[in-house]
Known about the structure:
The protein has helices at residues 6-21, 26-38, 46-65, 70-94, 106-111, 119-134, 149-161, 174-177, 191-216, 222-225, 230-261, 279-285, 288-302, 309-326, 331-355, 362-387, 391-403, 412-430, 433-436, 441-456. The protein is an all-alpha fold.
Amino acid sequence: MNFISLEYATLFCIVFVLYYLLPRLQIAILLSASLFFYGWSQPVELPLLLVVSLASSTVTYLILKGRYETQRLMAYGITLNLLVLGFFKYKFLFIEPLTTRAPAGLMENLLYVPLPIGISFYTFHCISLIGDAYRQQFTKDDLSGGLNFSRFLRNGLLYLIFFPQIVAGPIVKAHQFMPQIGKKMIQDVPFAEAVKWIIWGLFFKAFVADNLAQFTVWMDQPATFQGLGRYDLLALLFCYSFQIFADFAGYSAIAIGSAALLGYRLPINFNRPYTARSFSDFWRRWHISLSSFLREYLYIPLGGNRHGPIRTYLNLFITMALGGLWHGAAISFLLWGVAHGLALCVERAFTPMVRNLPSKGAAAAALQIGYSCLIFALVSWLWLFFKLQNFDHAWLYIDTIINASKALTFQRDQYALIAIYAAPVMFAHLIPKRISEKDSMLMAICYATMLMLSIFDKGPTDAFIYFQF
C-alpha cells in the first residue's frame, strides 16, 4: 500500500482510532494492520513474510533462552535469511544458466517468481533481531511480558512487520525497537512533531520527487537521451540527485511520523546529506540507518580499523561493495558501491595531510565549501549507476554527455520547472536548523503551504524508488 494513497490514509485513521480505543488489543491491531498493509497489492507474498519472520523470532527466542548452542543457532538463523534474500534478489545469476539443462518450465518458473516488496529491509530486521539477541543487546528483562514464547513471537513479529517501516525502512535495530513494545497512551503522542514529519514527507514525495520524475524518466531510454544536448543531460543527472533524496527522505519522514502517532520512535534517516564535508560525512548523513547497519553488522565484524591501514581499506571496500550489491544483482549497483568504497579509502589515506591544512579563516572556509561541492557533484554522478541499472545504458549516457553538442534542447520553461521543483531540496539543506525547527508563525505558514502544494500540485508518478529493494 502506498503511503501517499487514499487507501493508506483510510487504513491509518481506522487503525489510529481502534488503537487507542482498545488499548488491550494494540499489538493485535498493529499486526493485523501490518499484514493488511503489506498484502494489499500482492497477498501471495504474505506466506513468505510470515514464515521467515516466525522462523527468525523462534531462533531468537531459543538464543535468549540459552538452552542450545547459541552461536550455531545464530549462524543458522542468519544463513536462512541470507539464502532467502539471495534466492529472490540474485536468482538470475545462478538459475538462468541452468535453464538449458533443467526440465523445461521448472527453472523458468523459479526464475520469474516475483521479488517480494521490501525483502531487503525485513531481511535486515531479521538479522538484527537474531544478532542483537546473540550479543545480548536486549535481554528478556527488556521485553514486555518477559520471555513467554507466544508473547515473544508476537512481539518479534511486530518488530519485523511493523507497517510504517516494513517496505523501505528506516532500518530499525532490534535493541532499539523491542524495548518500546508495550501499551501506548494517547496523551503521550507528540502530535505536532508527528504531523510535521508527515507533511514534510508528503511534500517532498508528492510535490518534489514525483514532479521531478517527469523529467528524469527521459534518462531511462537511450533513444530519448541521445537526442538531448550536453547540458540537458547534466541537468537531468542532478535532477535525479534531487529526486532520489526527496523520494526516499519523504518516505522515511512519513514512516517516522506515522510511527510516532502510534507511540513508536524510528531513527532519523537523513540529515542534509548534500552538505556533507567528506564522503565519510555523506554516509553519516545519507540513509543513516543502512550506513549504521552495515557498519555494526558487517564492517566491525570484518575487523573495522583494528588491524592496520591495509585491512581497514579492504574492510571499507568490501562493506561498500556489498552495500551496492544489496540493492540488486546488477553491475551498475556493484560499481556504485565500489566507487563509494574507493572514495572512502582514498579519503581516509589523505586524512593526515588534510589535518595539516588551516582549519580557520576565509581560505579554509572557501576550501571546505569547494570540497563539499565536489562531494555533491561526484555523488550525483554516481547516482547515474543507481538510476540506470543496465550498465550499457549508463555508459552510453556518459559517452553521450562527452560527445553531445552544447546546444540546449530543453525549453526555458522546462528548466524553470526543474529549478522550482528542486528548490525545496536546496532550501532543506541550506536553511539553518535553528530556523527550520523553530515553532513560529512563519514555519506554520510554510507547513500549510507544503500541504496545499502536495495536494494540488502532486506529480503524476507515485511509486517510491526504494520499493524495488
